[in-house]
Amino acid sequence: MKLLIFVHHPFDQWNAPDWFPERLRQEFPQVAVVHLPDYKRVDEEIVDAEIVIAWSIRPEQIAAATKLRWIHSPAAAVHQLIFPELVNSEIVLTNAREVHGPVVAEHVIGLIFALAKKIPGSVLLQQKHVWGQQILWDELPRVREVAGATLGMVGLGSIGRAVAKSAKALGMRVIAVREHPEKGSEGADAVFGPAQIDEVFRQADYIVLAAPVTDSTRAIANAERLALMKPDACLINVGRGPLVDETALATALREKKIGGAALDVFPKEPLAADSPLWDVPNLLITPHTAALTDKLWERHYALFAENLRCYLNGQSLLAVVDKQKGY
What we know:
Oligomer: single chain
Order of helices and strands: EHEHEHEHEHHHEHEEHEHEHEEH
CATH superfamily of the largest domain: NAD(P)-binding Rossmann-like Domain
Shape: elongated
Helix content: 25-40%
Strand order of the largest sheet: 8-7-6-9-10-11-12
Structural class: alpha/beta
CATH topology of the largest domain: Rossmann fold
Number of helices: 12
CATH class of the largest domain: Alpha Beta
Distance between the termini: 27 Å
Largest sheet: 7 strands, parallel
Strand content: 5-15%
Number of strands: 12
CATH architecture of the largest domain: 3-Layer(aba) Sandwich
């Protein structure tokens, strides 16, 4: 049985460290583990691979990999893998949503506090050697308390559940929208179906986007929904860039129609140096760092090793993606 790993990325932390395949070889000697440092030999190595760990695969590679039975993505979002050749195959697709969920949730809470307490503004004033107490207070929206505020969660997957739990612990009211509200509230105070998403935008003080990218969620935060938000409400996106109409968001912030926003993800990354988003007022940009942790690959290993044991024992896998739905 052959396991092929190719997760090459310009950002070092997204690449599997050398100890990852070595530990797999030691723990699973019956599996032939091949770890490629780049994509040069993927076409020749994938033909007899039964398991693949990869960010993405091309349709023609799927066709050539006649022994392939399982693909694992180290990402939570897998929209780049949802194409007919894979969707219509018997290949099982799993993702790393449980790896990233708790870590991204910590980042979300950090962004909420940063926006509520005007931390970015304080940093800018510090760089200018300005004691900006009066400046920060006079600037709308006011510095505010997080406890008692309403969090609107768009998506109740691994990230959404973790955010909701932390927000409740801070004394926030949590409302959420999920595709199937009958599956339960996951601790939220109220859950709406997709048809009621406008109500979440109306009520929330902080709207957090953590939904998968599908045809129905692209530009889910559009001009019409941004117009429904309270004038001091804030939008946070830690899902994927296509969830937000960035032009509409920039306009809403410049015209002070909403209180602020924080974006960790963008349709094209890295964000270009000449992007107008850099200069949009009350917009906090983090460079896709929500999922970063020094324990990242330890968390990846724990999930994948457990899944590999399940696979070898003929048991159901964890974190299986519904290929028809795309998440």
